[in-house]
Amino acid sequence: MKQIPAPFWTLVLGIAVTLISLWVGQNHNLLPVQASEQAPLVDDLFDVMVTIGTALFIVVQGAIVYSLIRFRQRKGDETDGPPIEGNLPLEAFWTAIPSIIVVGLGLYSVVVFQEMGGFSPGGHHGHGAMVAMAPQQSVIDVAPLLAQMGPGENIDADVYSKAQVYGFGASPLLQLNQPDVTVNVTGMQFAWIFRYPDTGITDGELHIPVGKDVQLNIEAQDVIHSFWVPQFRLKQDALPGEPAELRFVATREGTYPVVCAELCGAYHGGMRTQVIVHSPEDYAAWVASRVAEAQPTTTVAEPLETATSAEYLAAIAPELAKPPVQIAQMDHAQMDHGAAQHL
């Protein structure tokens, strides 16, 4: 019986590995639901990485299993194996392929980072405000256009009409391209506070309308925090004394977790709240109900810049300051009870 050539088996195995890897890369279901226009950018990069990782896993593990079976010690065979030393073509191959993969993924990630605003002016990243687009839109950097204009020239509004300011640290540009909703976000140990400057609402949950341009102005009151909504695929650090911004469009109604992704103290794991994405009608009704029940503003004599986190929270949102106090009291009570048991 004629033996099947090795190149044929290599081709068949290569096609099988490719098809399996592509299927796994598109059907892994490892990520939460997409709920913002920016989410597909991150998911596409993740799918590519899963596809490549699956192929590498199959090839490496397959070679190990094949070697264990094909080159196992036969019964009664006490001889040494062949003295093979070095294989330059093989070593060059397994060095070049990972290098190409790493460089390719790096370039692709830079493109995604740029589309999410990594190279535009203003933010924590040294390059300025991050401007991200929905996948079907294009990105332009307005900084070079502004630099070419003389001091007496009027700014062409068409420049801003072409600049989509979604993503990390995306500031409204000279009062043009204003967001539909602006929310001031303060992170503190161990809570998120959301204030709506247009209506005076203060809340412990983030309420936004679906399909609208939302601008978050993020700051930290005490230590470093990180505002993260996994379903939005967006995360922005909050640094004390350095305001940050995050701009996005939610595309799916629902309730999603807001997580602090930076270790910020003993109760870091409990620093969670939620973002509620309403329909435009429900959002308008929520705003109207909160404005109707709003209490008169109380003047605080002590400057908030020098207040502790507890004082700051009590000053701007008294109803939100109660749960942390109760938690602390419960914690001290449990400690006292444990100490009494040991006596």
Give an overview of the whole structure.
The chain has 343 residues and is an alpha+beta fold. The chain is 40% helix and 18% strand. The protein has 8 helices and 11 strands. A 6-stranded mixed sheet has the order 1-9-6-2-3-4. The longest helix has 32 residues, at 39-70. The chain is elongated and about 85 Å long. The protein starts with 5 loop residues before the first helix and ends with a helix.
Which range does the strand content fall in?
A: 15-25%
Helix content: 40-55%
Number of helices: 8
Radius of gyration: 28 Å
The span between the termini is 86 Å
Q: For the report, how would you describe the main beta sheet? A: 6 strands, mixed
- The mean pLDDT is 78
Major beta sheet, strand line-up: 1-9-6-2-3-4
The helix/strand order is HHHHHEEEEEEEEEEEHHH
Output the structural class: alpha+beta
Give the secondary structure arrangement, pairings included.
Elements: H1 6-26, H2 39-70, H3 88-115, H4 142-147, H5 157-161, E1 167-168, E2 181-188, E3 191-196, E4 201-203, E5 206-209, E6 213-220, E7 225-229, E8 234-238, E9 244-249, E10 254-260, E11 272-278, H6 280-292, H7 309-316, H8 318-342
Parallel strand pairs: 2-6, 5-11
Antiparallel strand pairs: 1-9, 2-3, 3-4, 6-9, 7-8, 7-10, 10-11
